[in-house]
Amino acid sequence: MSPNLKAFLDMLAVSEIGKSLMAVSDDGYNVIVGSTPDSPILFHDYSQHPRLHQPTMNSDAAGRYQFMGRYWEHYRDQLHLPDFGHTSQDRWAIQLIRECRALEFIEQGRIPEAVHACRSRWASLPGAGYGQPEHKLGDLLAAYEEAGGVVA
């Protein structure tokens, strides 16, 4: 995995769950939607998507990239994922990036374009329009660069 792609994945995790929550979990890989650093909701069985519906959020998003359970079987089968572990979550996120046609942007360091292209997949990205809090591009670029990514 290239340094830029790794940094983009780290940026997505910061965007979706935040550094503080990553610090009190398994680097975010076991986080359930609705978690806070003071009150984390974590799962410990990585055999499959946990599908723990949180009524207050009306969601079952889970993992480092906050994947919805309804998509688990599709991506598990498409990507031949053995489980919902770290590598599987990363591969799933990369597939979503690929579907958004953003891999080339990332490799070229064109991160604003990559973020824009991926906004339909992650509600925390600017312009996503899901009615959830969205991060500012400048904050995401800072997280990306802090993770070792290079902006063109």
Summarize this structure briefly:
The chain is mainly alpha-helical. The protein has helices at residues 3-16, 19-23, 72-79, 86-99, 103-107, 111-118, 137-146.
Subunit arrangement of the protein: single chain
Number of strands: 0
- What name is given to the CATH topology? Lysozyme
Stretches where pLDDT is under 50 for at least 5 consecutive residues are none
- The overall pLDDT, averaged over residues, is 95
**Rg for CA atoms:** 14 Å
* Level-2 CATH architecture: Orthogonal Bundle
Reading the helices and strands in chain order gives HHHHHHH
Summing up helix and strand content along with how strands pair, one would put the structural category as mainly alpha
Shape: globular
- Give the count of helical stretches: 7
How does this model look, in words?
It contains 7 helices and no strands. It has 152 residues and is mainly alpha-helical. The protein has a single domain (3-146), classed as Lysozyme (Orthogonal Bundle). The longest helix is centred in the N-terminal third of the chain and has 14 residues, at 3-16. The protein is globular. The mean pLDDT is 95.
